Amino acid sequence: MLRRKKPLQRTAFAPKQGGSSLLRTTSLKRSPFKRKARKKRAWHDKRMLDACRGQICYLRVPGTCPRRNPEETIVPCHSNFSEHGKSGARKADDKFTVPGCMWCHAWLDAGGASFEQKHDIWCRAYCEWSEVRDGEAKEG
Fold it and tell me: Distance between CA 66 and CA 64 in Å, rounded?
């Protein structure tokens, strides 16, 4: 035979009076999560990334770069070489970026070319770009 449980009943105890109302009033005014300031990364320089906006493709990979529309999307292409700070999942320093189209950027990151070929093309583009970038920095 199954026994039926009794329903819960209220007790005769009254809630405490005169408790700390300070906790109740301040918790409504405060945000439950404290926001932290973003960490400053030593290798990050927003000015170098912003300098790539509105530029042409400096990589110009033969057989890959279409060079069709001068207003196509240009992205900052980071170096993939350890001599510029690249290691594991960490990108190279932002000062080692070159403006490039999406096709050249894909070739640099995942293309089937040899290491030497990628290194030569990236270094040539960086030499050209750094002269333009530093020239603009001195003027502005």
Answer: 6
